[in-house]
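Module 6 notes. Inverse folding takes a fixed backbone as the condition and produces residue identities as the prediction. Think of it as a translation problem where the source language is geometry and the target language is the twenty amino acids. Below is one complete input and output pair. Work through it position by position during the lab.
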């Protein structure tokens, strides 16, 4: 039983890590879906797995790959995003534990549809905000704080890492280059911003067994590295398209589970 749980966790973590590294997002969005799909977990438990698994620095391997390819993120951006994220995450987690599973699933579907629509509608409109080297110009502190707050709310309420919301907010709304937005998201996931919301899920008993959690963390480390290697060989337009496809597939599956 322990070996089975460990292997199932590794498979789930590997799938979540591959998508995280490839799309430069925290693995939470994929982990919730893959925990439901591969582990058969209920929505609250899937969200608890996602948040706890993101506490260790599993994104470090992916960050190294992005860094080696010349992608950098100002520390001021990370600080503002993180401040908003922590506040939003705790509020979202407190609210989630008072909501039934069917409502959480439909909210998750709506969240994915909105992100997908933003990527599609804002695709190609960010060129004016880039300089000749393809680097986004400086962004206001208020905009970064709001992106962090909204990403944190989605993280705590839906049990995800908030990386999808961070990347979409930075790239589609604030006009940052795709690779730079993905680097910022991965650096944020290196900071244990999910600890407050993870603790709330833990205290409510929404958690899987230790072998499953250990397997997920091991899989995340390997998968994020492999995904980041692939991402740095793909241009910005194709990465945006890949993210749209990934979000759409997750939305379709969660609609099926919610029905």
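Target side of the pair, the amino acids:
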């Amino acid at each position: 039983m322990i070996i089975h749980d460990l292997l199932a966790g590794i498979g789930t973590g590997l799938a979540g890590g591959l998508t995280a590294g490839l799309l430069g997002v925290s693995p939470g969005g994929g982990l919730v879906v893959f925990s439901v799909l591969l582990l058969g977990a209920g929505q609250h438990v899937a969200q608890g797995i996602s948040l706890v698994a993101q506490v260790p620095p599993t994104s470090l391997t992916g960050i190294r790959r992005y860094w080696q390819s010349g992608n950098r993120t100002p520390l001021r951006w990370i600080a503002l995003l993180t401040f908003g994220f922590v506040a939003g995450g705790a509020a979202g987690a407190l609210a989630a534990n008072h909501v039934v599973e069917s409502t959480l699933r439909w909210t998750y579907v709506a969240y994915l549809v909105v992100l997908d629509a933003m990527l599609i509608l804002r695709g190609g409109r960010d060129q004016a905000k880039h300089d000749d080297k393809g680097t986004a110009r400086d962004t206001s502190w208020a905009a970064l704080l709001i992106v962090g707050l909204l990403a944190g709310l989605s993280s705590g309420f839906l049990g995800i890492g908030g990386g999808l919301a961070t990347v979409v907010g930075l790239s589609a709304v604030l006009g940052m280059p795709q690779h730079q937005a993905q680097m910022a998201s991965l650096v944020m996931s290196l900071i244990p911003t999910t600890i407050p919301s993870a603790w709330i899920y833990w205290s409510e008993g929404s958690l899987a067994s230790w072998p499953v959690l250990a397997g997920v963390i091991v899989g995340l480390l390997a998968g994020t590295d492999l995904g980041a290697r692939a991402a740095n060989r793909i241009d910005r337009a194709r990465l945006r398209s890949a993210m749209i496809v990934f979000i759409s597939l997750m939305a379709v599956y969660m609609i099926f589970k919610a029905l």
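Reference fact for the lab report: The first helix runs from residue 2 to 23.
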